[in-house]
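Worked example 3. Consider a protein that binds fe (ii) ion.
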Amino acid sequence: MPHPATEGSAGEPVREKIVWVRMEELALGMFVHPLSSASFLIARKEQIQTLAESGAKGVFVDLVKSAPASLPDWARGMAGMRPKPSSETTAPGLQRNSRAAAFDRARQLLNRSRAPVERLLRQARLGKTLEKRQVVDLVEDIATSVEQCASAIVSLSRIKTVDNFTYLHSLAVCALMVNFARLAGFGQADVRELGMAGLLHDVGKTAVGSAILTKPGSLTPEEMAVMRTHTTAGHEILSRGGHFPATVLDVALHHHEKIDGTGYPDKLAGDSISVPARMAAIADVYDAVTSNRPYKEASLPSESLADMFTWQGHFDQDLLHTFIRSVGIYPVGSLVRLASDRLGLVLEQDAIDLTKPVVRVFYSIAQRAPLTITDLSLARDGNDSVLSREDPRKWGFHDWDRRWPEMIRLD
Ligand SMILES: [Fe+2]
Ligand SMILES: [Fe+2]
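Given these inputs, the predicted complex is written out as structure tokens:
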């Protein structure tokens, strides 16, 4: 499978306006982006000192709002370049009705996909040969759902319980891979192949005992060694019968390799890891860290993205940037605080500026009271902006994962 150029539709390089800057490179004049929890212009040396003392390894910096002279050489060329709207992304300004309908369809698709995915995993556990035709329709349905409204299936499949984790993780990585691949410029057939690879990437976990898979707390070195065999086991399961494309086998085998060569099972480094495997590594970790697991609370999606940037040597940085454009900085379903001292739910990404999503405003912080719901396109309405991402629990929304999909459906 060729690696498409990461370019916009008119052939111009697509750049982010926000970059991750390591603590050592921070300088006066840089504008710290709210994705780093706070938003301010670095005007005094003590502010850098305070950031360093917080233990952070770096912060997100808004290139456009920073003084050009403050930026490191590598970032200067990116400043001032706006990403082009991609025809591949979901059309902005979805009508409320069509958004609610897209969420309903995505919910139904996730529900009816449970049985076929679990049947497939059962067959793998019993040592039966899996066939490509068993998953083609499912991948097609997920690809269609992503094409209609990517944020619906991507955000709904993030909501997991211990009970449905395995099948939803497979579907989520499938949807994330389809969305990622479309934005990275792959053609239709390749997009589906990458989606299939996402769906089946962890099929080898059927060879790992459930005591290890669901163990609360961390694994012993011996248990970890067993867990790691899911890569070679998955490759073996999918090789039987010769039904699956090479990309699907490769992703099952190599989705835990890391760019610096410290991954497994083959300790591949850099370009010797295929692009599909590098993409799957990102989609897999993103879904794992944004979902609840038996042994940990999920992180906020935007926090997970920030964390993933700090894992030096783990991911392909160019692909990570493309991935972020596919899920957004404030993914749909995030709770955000606005400069107007109101809380809102992220409804949609803006195709041009990831810092300016469409937000459903519903709560006044000053009055500590609900507001009449209004939708606000921050890209179109220049009077308000996202100040920070918020932990719903901090505001008493302990059932946020149930609440926001309902709020999205409101008219
Ligand atoms: Fe895995
Ligand atoms: Fe996985």
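Take a moment to read the result before moving on. Residues 335-409 form one domain. Residues 5-16, 80-92 have pLDDT under 50 and may be disordered.
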